[in-house]
Design a protein that fits this description.
heterodimer, A: about 270 residues, alpha/beta, Elongation Factor Tu (Ef-tu), domain 3, Rossmann fold, seven-stranded mixed β-sheet, six-stranded antiparallel β-sheet, 6 helices, about 15% helix, about 30% strand, globular, B: about 325 residues, 2 domains, four-stranded antiparallel β-sheet, 12 helices, 11 strands, about 35% helix
Chain lengths: ~270, ~325
């Protein structure tokens, strides 16, 4: 019988500092094991003596000798992780969850919307879409952050732009910023897609989902084509501990990716 | 085929079990009863007739606190869970509580710790006396599942019925005698309230009903109803570190959805900050979520939550009131 509570050993290969709070960790599993995952799935990082935290995977599913986790120093576990260095060991459980509805996206226009660190699992999806670029029609990434410095993965932007339409926005511009200023919803008018045949995937704070969904449905994108990735307190990852339950669904098993129409009436969504 | 065992022989049978198993049984503790190890006690201390225990037998498979693994530096060691155990003297409602947890902890993914212990455990049931606070008759529980052996009190002693190969093997022991008694345990007739799962579900789904706020005004939010419930199973995990700072253990412990931090995430956002919503969630889980997930309501009628609630909240009365406004 498999014991899903036991972490596998992982080694930090590389750390990239994005902002004072946010780092990108490149990890490798010990004993040459590979992490097989679908974009949108998550792992639970395990620091012995500190605890565990669920994190979306922020790298290409095809480059699975290593994988990336984008982490904001915010709680007990992530603050402990922040002190670790290259070569240090961590525990990894998973991958868990359903992942993004990849098959549905073929032959469609795709709008990705990311707010803040919500970009992390979207990165994994972007890399997937780029790998099979001819299978999809137009692809947009709407990405909003507080300041230009908070736009993560900026070194990838020029590469991504060769394949997808990248639309950025910030709340608080600096002197050099020439792009859009305002909430992510202000980017919606720039999207030129076949609305009835478009699919939207969002990852960000719950409040962003509500405002974006209302904008997108105004554009006549069907609600059933809008998918969101949710975040909850999680302890087991296998649908037992009850912390991530949302109505009759578990974020860890049935999610973290849900159709917006499926969850919009659950008051705890926000 | 039922067999008869006298009270004295039943004590001898328990002594026999103690030779090969760790035996846990109901014993008296002050004015209450608890399930406890009897390997270091004479079998006569086992309470053959008892109203109910404080904690349900879930504590043996899903303990209030258990070590998932110990660690030293980065090495992990999982505790051995191979103890051969007999749980003696479970009432029918507690047997059904275990059956529900069996489903919960195996569906859709096995919980290693629960299942390992469960595989190594023999269950011996016993009939519930009339003066028990349990109202499990209301549920019309199946009397032929979930145990190896069941003992039904009759004037001459106990009538024993087996429902497994191990149970049948026990019946061959000389403590059990042939008898003219035919019937084992009898099925009781269910209560109107609990016979209609759909009705209860509809009643609970009245999320905006004023009753939830009224409950929040009297409920202490202490979570005792979850701890004593045979089918409540939510948990929290914690890492404990030793003074050497490189060794310790990861534990899991019972949690309760009534407690304020249950749905708090990093960054201090709380998805269920109000007691009203947490109370609602308890009812929702038991009467809406569990029927959808496993086809059974999350209650077996043991009556413990009624006995131990410091605010004297009776969920049966709440359900009846909710049904009235449908």
């Amino acid at each position: 019988m498999e014991n899903y509570y036991l972490p596998q050993e992982g080694i930090i290969q590389n750390i990239k500092v994005f902002t004072p709070e946010i780092k990108l960790y490149t990890l490798k599993l010990s004993n040459n094991r590979k992490l097989k995952f679908i974009p949108g799935q998550f792992v639970i990082i395990s620091l012995l003596g500190y605890g565990e935290a669920p994190l979306g995977i922020a790298s290409s599913p095809f480059k699975n000798e290593t994988f990336n986790l984008c982490v904001r120093k915010v709680g007990r576990v992530t603050s402990a992780l922040d002190k670790l260095k290259e070569g240090n060991k961590v525990g990894i459980r998973g991958p868990f969850g359903n992942g993004f509805p990849l098959d549905e996206l073929e032959g469609k226009d795709i709008v990705l919307a990311a707010g803040g660190t919500g970009i992390a699992p979207i990165v994994s999806l972007i890399e997937y879409l780029i790998t099979f670029r001819p299978k999809f029609k137009k692809i947009y990434l709407l990405y909003g952050a507080r300041t230009p410095a908070d736009l993560l993965f900026s070194s990838e932007f020029s590469r991504w732009k060769q394949f997808i339409n990248l639309c950025l926005t910030v709340d608080q511009p600096d002197k050099c910023w020439k792009g859009n200023v305002g909430l992510i919803t202000t980017l919606c008018p720039t999207i030129k897609v076949d609305c009835q045949n478009s699919w939207v995937i969002m990852c960000g704070p719950p409040i962003m989902y509500r405002f974006m969904a209302s904008e997108l449905t105004k554009m006549e994108i069907p609600e059933k084509n809008i998918y969101v990735s949710l975040e909850r307190r999680m302890r087991c990852g296998i649908g037992k501990c009850q912390h991530c339950v949302l109505g009759t669904k578990y974020v860890c098993l049935d999610g973290p990716v849900f159709c917006y129409s499926e969850i919009k009436n659950i008051p705890e969504e926000g | 085929m039922a067999k008869l065992i006298s009270k004295q022989n039943l004590y001898y049978f328990i002594e026999e079990l103690k030779k090969n198993y760790n035996v846990y049984a109901p014993i008296r503790k002050g004015n209450s009863y608890i399930f406890d190890s009897i390997n270091d006690k004479p079998a006569e201390e086992v309470a053959l007739i008892y109203p109910t225990t404080i904690l349900p037998p879930k504590k043996f498979f899903f303990p209030p606190q258990e070590t998932l693994f110990e660690f030293k530096n980065q090495r992990i060691k999982v505790p051995s869970l191979n103890e051969k155990t007999v749980l003696f003297g479970l009432h029918l409602y507690d047997i059904h509580g275990l059956l529900i947890l069996d489903t919960v902890f195996s569906h859709p993914i096995n919980d290693y710790y629960y299942q390992k212990r469960r595989q190594n455990t023999i269950v011996i049931g016993i009939s519930t006396p009339a003066k028990s606070p349990a109202f499990y008759e209301a549920f019309g529980l199946d009397v032929h599942v979930g145990y190896d052996l069941f003992l039904n009190e009759v004037p001459e002693g106990f009538l024993a019925t087996a429902e497994s190969k191990i149970g049948e093997r026990f019946l061959k022991l000389p403590f059990f005698k042939e008898t003219y008694w035919r019937e084992g345990i009898t099925q009781k007739f269910p209560d109107k309230l609990f016979s209609n799962k759909e009705l209860i579900k509809k009643a609970v789904l009245q999320k905006n009903h004023k009753i939830w706020q009224r409950l929040a005004e009297i409920c202490f939010g202490c979570g005792i109803c979850s701890y004593v419930c045979p089918v409540c199973y939510c948990f929290e995990t914690d890492d404990r570190i030793n003074f050497d700072l490189c060794s310790g253990c990861r534990i899991r412990r019972w949690d309760a959805c009534f407690l304020p931090d249950f749905s708090r995430v990093a960054g201090n956002h709380n998805f269920r900050p109000n007691l009203r919503d947490r109370i609602y969630h308890w009812y929702y889980h038991k009467f809406v979520q569990m029927p959808e997930e496993i086809g059974k309501i999350g209650c077996v009628g043991c009556g413990r939550c009624l006995t131990y609630c410091p605010a004297k909240i009776n969920f049966k009365e709440i359900l009846k009131e909710l049904i009235k406004t449908l």
